[in-house]
Design goal:
Pfam families: DinB
Distance between the termini: 23 Å
Oligomer: single chain
Family: Belongs to the DinB family.
Largest sheet: 2 strands, antiparallel
Radius of gyration: 16 Å
Mean pLDDT: 94
Protein name: DinB family protein
InterPro entries: DinB (IPR007837), DinB/YfiT-like (IPR034660)
Low-confidence stretches: none
Keywords: Metal-binding
Length: about 150
């Protein structure tokens, strides 16, 4: 079973790379979209950060609660600030999760499983999208990228 004492530091190794990725400031990268209709670099970074907080909240509360706000941003600095805020809030939530909460059954989009399953999937989700950000940056011409973790 997942253990919060090892999960949180492992998650943070990946989240720290997200913070590095949102410091890249090359040719307005924050607004770069590799295909028409795709998420921009900044939107994808915020999707990663907000989704992880949403799933941590779900585990903490024992049920899915959709986010109540939509991120408003226009600049790289806005994205950096929001990613930082999501990270700090998520760290607090993760620190509060108990073993009992990890074992509790939760239903999310038709799947019922112990909460720890969703927390594991959340990390996979973050890693998947972080890989997309690294790819976006390469496509946009960024030469120096942080290591993936």
């Amino acid at each position: 079973m997942l253990n919060m004492d090892s999960y949180t530091p492992h998650w943070l190794t990946h989240r720290e790379v997200l913070h590095k990725l949102v410091t890249l400031d090359q040719d307005n990268l924050v607004h770069f979209t590799p295909w028409e209709g795709g998420m921009s670099y900044g939107t994808l970074a915020l999707h990663i950060a907000s989704s992880t907080q949403m799933f941590a909240n779900m585990v903490s509360k024992g049920e899915f609660t959709p986010p109540q706000t939509k991120d408003e941003w226009t600049t790289l600095e806005d994205v950096q600030r929001l990613v930082h805020e999501y990270t700090e809030a998520t760290k607090e939530i993760l620190a509060s999760i108990t073993n009992e909460q990890l074992q509790a059954e939760i239903t999310f989009f038709g799947q019922t499983a112990p909460a720890h399953v969703f927390l594991s999937k959340t990390l996979d989700h973050e890693i998947h999208h972080k890989g997309q950000l690294l790819t976006y940056a390469r496509i946009a011409g960024v030469k120096e990228l942080p290591f993936f973790m």
